[in-house]
Amino acid sequence: MLDNTNKPAFAKRTERMKASEIRELLKLTQNPEVISFAGGLPNPASFPVEIINKISSDVLTTIGETALQYGTTEGVIELRETLNTYMKKNGIITDVENILITTGSQQGLDLVGKVLVDPDDVVIASAPSYLGALSVFKSYGADIIQIPMKEDGIDLDIMDHTIKKIKNEGKFIKLIYTNPTYHNPTGVSMNTENRKKMYDIARDHGIFILEDDPYRELSYFKESELSVKSFDKTEHVIYMSTFSKILSPGFRLGWITGMSEVIRKIAIAKQAIDLCSNTLTQYIAYYYISKGYAEKHIPKIRTMYKEKLEIIINALNKFMPDYVSWTNPKGGMFIWLTLPNNINVNDMFPYAISNNIAYVTGTAFYIDGKSGMHSMRLNFTYPSNNKIVEGIENLSKVIKKWNSKTYVESNNTLDSKERGKELGLILK
Amino acid sequence: MLDNTNKPAFAKRTERMKASEIRELLKLTQNPEVISFAGGLPNPASFPVEIINKISSDVLTTIGETALQYGTTEGVIELRETLNTYMKKNGIITDVENILITTGSQQGLDLVGKVLVDPDDVVIASAPSYLGALSVFKSYGADIIQIPMKEDGIDLDIMDHTIKKIKNEGKFIKLIYTNPTYHNPTGVSMNTENRKKMYDIARDHGIFILEDDPYRELSYFKESELSVKSFDKTEHVIYMSTFSKILSPGFRLGWITGMSEVIRKIAIAKQAIDLCSNTLTQYIAYYYISKGYAEKHIPKIRTMYKEKLEIIINALNKFMPDYVSWTNPKGGMFIWLTLPNNINVNDMFPYAISNNIAYVTGTAFYIDGKSGMHSMRLNFTYPSNNKIVEGIENLSKVIKKWNSKTYVESNNTLDSKERGKELGLILK
């Protein structure tokens, strides 16, 4: 129905939806002269284009009619079997029946929100957290409580204490959302002991953990830590991952596994949402893993991104002023910069864009819209190696200029390491 | 959070979700000996496998990296431009900016429900209606009012009268859901005059029409009537269609167009739901239409399905007893049978399955769970030509046997034409 002025009367839940800040920022960065550290994009050179071309032809030639038909809501059975085996490597013991293919891991988040989160339920997440997860939980009306991070991830003592406090207040905690491996946006990875501890806390409180694990394969120095799910003997952990970083984000393919009853409910919800995920690309993903292509190709992605990580770290060391600090990622796609308190990165953004540099402002990763204004997320997987160096040099100039401006204005500088510690992040 | 017995505490909205009856029925029909008229599946022989193989290779060879990367939430711009031109043929004047690609038209339904329907809002639909639409609106808490059908679609006089009554009661009508062209489940198509009238009623009352138009290209005797959207000068019609019946349902690609503000809101909602639809298959769909493949291939689908429609009609005429009647589709995928009131098709279903015949019980298409118990939907596009004849012969035996049984039990038969009229459907 429309109102008297012919405007649509939207559902109340739309008041909780807002366009992603990154999405709006990205519109500003479409000028090809802008060096963008803002996106969350894999490098297109990492896509196995020829392999996909060959597999696509194999699939269409051999099982074309099946690969073009509707599939079951849970997903192509061969792919789910392959993922069952694949996850075993990482210590995850589940069952094909409890694996469901999602239309990207974003849909996994949405489905979990849809079946578990009522308005005013509490969802616990780290501060900062992946903004796509925050917007999903917010869209379902969750009261999102962000817990500060320590050097390797969410501060578990504060988390435990906060859970007790919230429970005492009589509120209902539905989920702990975590992205422990090469965390978006900070790049840090939780150590094994803390992963176990996180599981213990969740189990003892009877709360689900939603483990979002998209970057597991993007480990550049040693194997990634075992997933939180691998310690789960009690079905408290719902685990999700994606093909976006190891095959193609355009395929929109992820998967989710967890307690049988949750996966059943998710299947019913998904049925009304999109019936099933893309069948053709599910078969391509199935061949990609089961026929050994992934095993050969993923190391190439690692080599490419490791070099980019080293280049950005070297450039930061070389160009950035003392009062800027950053995390120390060992994998993934992101690095997190902490600037002095006199620099508001939102205020600085237009100045950076006018100098052809784009980043994501830290505030995007906090639900309060205020925290993170002295931080920024940089993506190092998308720009070319040369552009990374050029971009960091320019960004450092932008920051120095802005700092001298704000210094004059505020007549005050602060020690950035202290500030970084306040934000709970490990600093170089 | 889990409860004391370690069961998940699901969100309240999950109480409104239920597994599709068809989905549950289909599980019973996986025995290869069963001749199934139950699915809503295109015939796999209608898929342009070789064309897709060629296009896929062209896309990957020429623009592989773009086709494998994330795309914009609204969809691949080239595809949206092509759809803009494509819809003009059908009298729909819109703008590329107001066309959004959906992950199948099921997602279009879900997005419209998400941005427009609050709990207890009224959604008007025909009785019967596509059950996938009913479950979406129900999942958002809509009060679905089903209006009886006349020979070519929803009874517009009753609709107008009902709208006035509901408005007088102070309730909020958000949408009229309609599938006017080769309606699922009945197969009937609304005449042009009634389409105009439907638009007029909606406009006068200030209510959106959601026109679901998946079967438009499946016209077997003459061109389909112009869409309701083609009469829309006031942006009251939201229009959606799909590639599922003309290219591949496995691609999960549909599109939606309507008032700019609605499409903007839908884009924001979609961003949190799956970021974007499958990029590779969007490019394949773009080449399929823009390079003339669709124009050559769709007539082949029409020829194949027209033959199947004629075969099922001939078989019904030949084998069915007098007291069974059916609609007279000129396109689409379905035909709707009306049986005597003494035959409950839900009760008869296990007997039909034991005789290797499957159908969808009429009750699946009504929100009250009771109406439609003397009706069934038959799909004629999926079974082979021989199986259609064999299946209808067997179904008629099943019905005769069941009728003689219920006749004896109830000592009462009714005139099926009278019953068909009660259900508001045209009968042969």
Molecular structure report:
2 copies of one chain form a homodimer. In chain A, the strands form 3 sheets. Chain A has an 8-stranded mixed β-sheet, sandwiched between helices. In chain A, strands 10-11-14-13 form a 4-stranded antiparallel β-sheet. The first copy, chain A, has a two-stranded parallel sheet with strand order 1-12. Chain A contains 13 helices and 14 strands. In chain A, strand 10 and strand 11 (334-338) form a beta hairpin. Chain A has 2 domains: 12-47 and 298-422, Aspartate Aminotransferase, domain 1 (Alpha-Beta Complex); 49-293, Aspartate Aminotransferase, domain 2 (3-Layer(aba) Sandwich), CATH 3.40.640.10. Chain A is an alpha/beta fold and 428 residues long. In chain A, 43% of the residues lie in helices and 14% in strands.
Structural key phrases:
homodimer; 428 residues; alpha/beta; Aspartate Aminotransferase, domain 1; Aspartate Aminotransferase, domain 2; eight-stranded mixed beta sheet; four-stranded antiparallel beta sheet; 13 helices; globular
Give start-end ranges of low-pLDDT stretches of chain A: 411-428
How many alpha or pi helices of chain A? 13
Query: Would you state the CATH class of the largest domain in chain A?
Result: Alpha Beta
Give me the side-by-side strand order of the main sheet of chain A. Answer: 2-9-8-7-6-3-4-5
CATH superfamily of the largest domain in chain A: Type I PLP-dependent aspartate aminotransferase-like (Major domain)
Cα separation of the termini of chain A: 56 Å
**Helix and strand sequence of chain A:** HEHHEHEHEEHEHEEEHHHEEHEEEHH
